[in-house]
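ok so i was messing around last nite and threw this chain in just to see what happens. nothing serious, just curious
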Amino acid sequence: MINSINVLAARSNPLQLKVRLLKKALIFSAFFYMQISVVFASVCAPQHIDESVRVNYVYDGDTLQLEDGRKIRLIGIDTPEVFSRHKTINRDIKTKGKQARVALQKQLDRSDQRVSLAYGRQRFDRYNRTLAHVFLPDGKNLQAWLIEQGYGVAFTTPPNDTMSDCYKQQEAQAINAKRGIWNMPRYQLIRTNQLNNNSEGFHRLQAKVTQARAYNNKISLLLDDGVELNIYKKDLVNFNAYMLNNLANKNIQVRGWLHIKKAQNTQQNKARFIMTLRHPDNIKVLH
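result:
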């Protein structure tokens, strides 16, 4: 009886029925808009998605294995090493690396190991790992989150630099808050005279360009007469030529991986260390 009365009432008052239907439509639209906004308002939101997959294993804070066996290297981030066949990793570095791995695994557990991939312009690295930005189903960018929490550095490698500005912003927040790795001596900005025989690995340096030379295959900068900074010919297209031509006697900040210079490479200068620079994100001219 009640249902019959409701039907009759609706038929007798079509305007009232339209109002109710419009209200329902507006409520649904608002809910749908909120859901979409949650995804696309995410920090460093996906510009596109190439594939949805499931993760099988977490190697470390920046490397995954998928169910189909593919190995994924997260673009734009580098977390401390957990394992190396070629060198001994300092205990404090390994500890931070393990923390990054655990943090990444916990994020994946939230989505039952399901993630979406956005491939880089360069699809594979020299180890044949797939290079991708990795997102949770709700749009959360895992690289951005790890960087903002201080689990790794934002590091730009061409040509996969589409999200580098966003990742750098997340890193700046982590540095200002001294989160995670940014409390460690290894990741502080230092001068070249603070380096020693145990200083191989990632560093941020502030130095004066004491020499700048162009060779057939590279531009070589000498920093405080102690570090040889090389930009090879294949990467010169990424840099501003005017900036490179006017670096002599300038104070700069650089970031990258230091290696002890081999004896046969010491003829050009007396630098103890060598660093390769591939992207302008990793150099800042001070004055």
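not much to say yet. The first helix runs from residue 2 to 12.
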